[in-house]
Every structure is written in structure tokens, then in C-alpha cells.
User: What shape does this take?
Amino acid sequence: MNWKEEWRWLAAFAGVFFGFYFLPAGQPRFDGAITEALELTKWYTREHVALCLIPALFIAGGISVFVSQASVMKYFGAKADKFLSYGVASVSGTILAVCSCTVLPLFAGIYKRGAGLGPAIAFLYSGPAINVLAIVLTARVLGFEMGAARAIGAVVFSIVIGLAMHFIFRREESAKAIAQADLPEPEVKRPLWRTSFYFAAMAAVLVFANWARAEPSDAVFHAVYRIKWPLTAFSALALGLMLKAWFAADSKKLIIASIPALALAFLYSDLPILSFSAGFIGLSWLLNSSGEGELKDWFVASWDLSKQIFPLLIAGVFISGFLLGRPGHEGVIPSAWVAGAVGGNSFAANFFASIVAAFMYFATLTEIPILQGLLGSGMGKGPALALLLAGPTLSLPSMLVLKSVMGLKKTVVYAALVVAMATFSGMFYGSFF
Assistant: This one.
């Protein structure tokens, strides 16, 4: 008998027993936190799984199948031109209006295809941080200085954190560069422009379906919002035509897969999410029934990523809701503690704001009304910027997923860099404004 293993079982049994024995069920704070955890998880599954996560998983699966390793290494590999790779990665958020959880499958896709750690991390940070609409709304609601500081800080952060990660893990990156140099040049199955158009269509589906409501004063954003679903449908149609013309999708199966989405679009035009969801169910059936080849590989890659990422995200969202609640609702940690700890511009206030932001889940744009309320409760401007720079890019759910993708050590270092830079940036900003 392995007593070491048996003692682990005994410790686990004892932990579960005493955990339930002393469970504070019936206490208002505990019961409210459970309710908030369930409410946040319910909201996340309704608002983000179908519209954000599923398209992102399909894009990530497509990256692993349709994007050659040579292409990834050329632009993001360990030996790629640093100015090009970091430049492209640092402004990717201007195209992808996604949250910290939605960008994870895309990061996993390019990282597993051989992207250098530095450029991949720059992409990971910038994806949710450099959201044009979020920066515009920050400037309108919280002031021009805060919006400008957020925009500049996000671009600088993505590059600096990426370079720092590359330097810290430079031995691994050097070994990766040597290994990539020995790889044979893979056969290119189709021109790069075709693959680019395919990903543009998929990205358009993701971006337009999640286009946030804008005020009429923001003319361009408001105009796009009014026609977001027709634009999404047009992008999906373009994707279908590409699958037929360039990826040898079966015409009959393509038509059959699209019928439920079209029918629901006409029958329930006021609930476009039904048609949107049916479209991805049809796409899954089309890919899975295509036999051996690229389309089946696309489905398998997307499904494998789903099994890896989805359970961790749901668990992380639940825990985040239990600890910190939702905007306007408290979790087990009282919001008064948070508001009282982020007044002024001390190191402690900025550090606390960065830590809380790193663990709390922020959907795209929700950080703005949260900050508006906290500023009204006495939050300093420095800690406010620290929260803006750390919050949208980190969360407990994202850290759980990152651990499974790149390991515990890299995840801890990445989170520590974000928190540290957000803390000192907040102190610097708060000393002037």
C-alpha cells in the first residue's frame, strides 16, 4: 500500500467533510455570494458563449489547420522580425473587440502553431485591451485624459510585457528558434490571400455579432450597430461561399446546414442569437460529416480546444462571481472594502486595484460603468487607470486557461507583469491628474 497516496485521499476526504460541516449556509453574505456566482455564470453563458466563445474556438481551430506553421513563424515565430511581429500583435485589439476569455482560443491557436512567446503574449494582452469603442467610451465617460492614458498604456503594455516574457524565458525561446530552423518548409495548399479572406470572414462574424450598442452621437459605431446582424449574415454567407469554392465543401450538405439558420432568421427575427447559434451547429455538422480531410480536422481541432478551455472558463467565472459578484451586486467580499482600499494614489491603493482587476471578470465595456461608480465613491484616478489596464486583459477564468496552455510558471509571470505595470502606471498617472 502506498501510504503517501492514501494520506492524500484521507486529506481530501477530511477537507470535503469539514468544508461541508462548517459551510455557512443560511448566512446572507454566503447565500448572496452563491446567488451572484450563479447569476454571473448564467449571464456569461447567455451573452458570451454563443456569440463570442464558439466563433473564437472555430477561428482557433482554423488557425491550427489552415495556417501553415511556416506562416506563423514568419510573422510571429521566435526568429521573426521583432518590429513586425510586435507591431502587428500590439494593435490587434483594434480589430478584435473581445474580452479576456474570448481571446484565449486565438492565443492558444497561434502559440501552439509555433508563435514566439513574446509576440503571442503581446497579442494576448492587446486583444481585449485595445478595443477602439472601449477607449472612445472611456474618454467620453471618464474624461479625455483617462481615455488617452488607457490607449497609450495598452499599446506600450502589450509590447513591454511581450518583450519581458521573451527575455525571462529566453532560453526556451532560443531552443524553439533552433528547432524551428530545422523544420522543413511545408507544402502550401492554397494561396495566402485565400486563407486571409477566410479568416477575415470568420473574424467579421465574431466582431459584428458582438458589436456593442453605441450612442447616436458616436455616428460610425451607432450606424454599424444598427446593421450588425445583416453584416454578420453577409459575413457568414461569404464564409459559406469560400468553403465551397476553396475548401471543397459538399454543396448539398452546405445547403442543409444553412437551412435551420435561415428558417430561424425569418421566424424569430427579434432573437437573432437563435439563428446565429443554429448556424454554428450547422457548421459543426458540415465539418464533422465531411470525411477525412481539412474540414474534419478543423472540427476536431475546435472540439479539442473546447474541451480544454470551456470547463475552466465556466469554473473561473463561477468563482469570480462568488468572490466579487457582479456590477452593482456584492459577492462574498464586500464592495465597501474594495472602494475603501482604492482611495488616493498610494502604492497600496494602486496595487490593490490591480490585484482585484486581475481576478475579477470584466466583459467588454462593463469596466467603464464599474469605474464610474467607484470614482464616485472616492476611488483615486491612479487606481482607476490601474484597473483599466489590468482588468480587461486578466481574469481568474483566463488565468486558469492560460495555465493549461503555457504552464503555471509562464502564467504566474505574465499575471505578475500585468499587475506590476498597472500598479506603477497608476501611480505615475495619479501623481499628475
Q: What stands out?
A: The chain has a mean pLDDT of 83. The chain has one domain: 27-249+290-430. The CA atoms of residues 248 and 295 lie 9 Å apart. The chain is about 75% helix and 0% strand.
